[in-house]
Amino acid sequence: MLQPVCTIVGGTKGIGLGMAKEWIKRQKQFNKQTIPKIYLLGRSVNLKENIELDAFMKEEQNNAIIKPVHIDLTQPESIDSTCKYICNDTDTLDYLFHTAGMLHNIDTNTGKQKLNMPKLPERSLKGLSYDGMLQTFRLNTVAPALIIKGFSDILKKSYRNGYRSLNRNLPPVVAALSARVGSINDNRKGGWTSYRASKAALNMILLNAHLEFGMGTVGQKVVVMSLHPGTVDTHLSKPFQQIAAKQYDIFTPEHSASMLVDLCEKCDETYSGNFYAYDGTKIPY
Predict the structure, then answer these.
(1) Torsion of CA 202, 204, 207, 208, to 10 degrees
(2) Which of 89, 150, 247, 262 lies 20 to 30 A from 83 at CA?
(3) What integer pLDDT is reported at residue 39 of this predicted model?
(4) Please, are residues 203 and 275 in contact by the beta-carbon 8 Å criterion?
(5) Which helix (H) or strand (E) holds 176?
(6) Which residues pair with 5 in a beta bridge?
(7) Could you say which DSSP state residue 114 is in?
(8) pLDDT tens, position by position, 183-234
(9) What 8-state DSSP symbol labels residue 282?
(10) Residue 249, exposed/middle/buried by CB under 10 A (0-12, 13-18, 19+)?
(11) Measured distance CA(158)–CA(174) in Å, rounded
(12) What distance in Å separates the CA atoms of residue 163 and residue 161, rounded to the nearest whole number?
C-alpha cells in the first residue's frame, strides 16, 4: 500500500523531533488506515544517550514506521551515503524537512564558551573569524544544499507517484528552517554576521531549488519553502532566551512544530519560492 514518507534532517531532537510527532499525527488524521514512514536523521541516534528520542520511540506512534538514521552534516561523505541509503530504502518521498543548524558554541549546561571553539555569534564585525564563519556556513548553508541535491531525483519522481500527489493532488514538499534575522530587507540592527549571512545564503539556495524544480519537465514540480520557526526553547536559542523574551514569545518545540507542519501540510505550488514565518505570514528575502 502506498504510504506517506517523510525525512527530517535534525529529526532526533528539538524542533525536528516535534515535527516528527506532529507529522505522524496529521497523516493519521487524513487517513486512519495509512502507515506513515519517517526517517529521523541526526548525530544522536543512540537511544541510551538521546533521552528525547528514546521517549519518542517508546510512545504509541500509530503504527508508524520510524527509522532513526545517523548522519554527520559536517562530512559530505556522510550526507551522500545517507541520502543514497534512504533513496534505496523507499520508492517515494513526500516531505523533506531540514531543521538542523547552529548558532553558537556555548555549553548550555554550564553557560560557558566551549574551549578551542570559535566565539559565536559575533556581536560585531570585529568578532569575525575564519573558523567561525566556516563552521556556521558548513552547517547552515552547505549541508542543506547537499541534502536537497541528494534527494532531488526522488522528489521529482514523487511528484508523479508519491502519496501526497496521488492521494491529495499536491506536490512533494521541501522546507528548511531559516531565520528572520537572515532576511536582508528586515535587517535593522546588524550583528550576528555569520549566522545572518548563512541563513540569507540558505534562502538563496532554496529559491534556486524552487526555480530548478519548477523549470523541469512536466511532472517534476516540488514545493520549496524557507521557514522561520520563531524563538523556540531549544539548545540553539538557550543562551539568548532571556533577552529574546523581552521582544518575542518563546515557543515550545512542540508548539512551533505544530504550526510549521500545518503550513507544510496545506501548502500547494503557490507557496513555493517564498519565505514564511511560523504563522504563515511572508517574510521578505
Answers:
(1) -110
(2) 262
(3) 98
(4) yes
(5) strand 173-177
(6) 37
(7) P
(8) 999 998 899 999 999 999 999 999 999 999 987 766 679 999 999 998 776 6
(9) B
(10) exposed
(11) 12
(12) 7
pLDDT tens, 264-278?
A: 999 999 999 999 999
**Residue at 238: amino acid letter:** K
Alpha helices in the chain (DSSP H): 14-30, 51-58, 76-89, 130-137, 143-161, 163-168, 193-215, 241-244, 253-266
Top pLDDT among 235 and 272 is at 272
In 3D space, the residue among 194, 177, 176 whose CA is nearest the CA of residue 234 turns out to be 177
Count of CB atoms within 10 A of residue 196's CB? 22
Cα dihedral angle (74, 135, 176, 172), rounded to 10 degrees? -30
Grid cell of 99 as nine digits: 531543521
Relative to beta strand 112-113, strand 250-251 is: unpaired
The answer to whether 14 and 41 have CB atoms below 8 angstroms apart is no
Instruction: Give the C-alpha distances (Å, rounded to integers) separating 267 from 60, 168, 204, 229.
Output: 28, 11, 20, 16
Neighbouring C-beta atoms of residue 213, cutoff 10 Å: 24
Q: How many residues does the chain have?
A: 285
State the cell numbers at 38: 519517517
Q: Under the phi-then-psi rule, with left for phi > 0, alpha for psi from -120 to 50, and beta for the rest, what region is 273? A: left
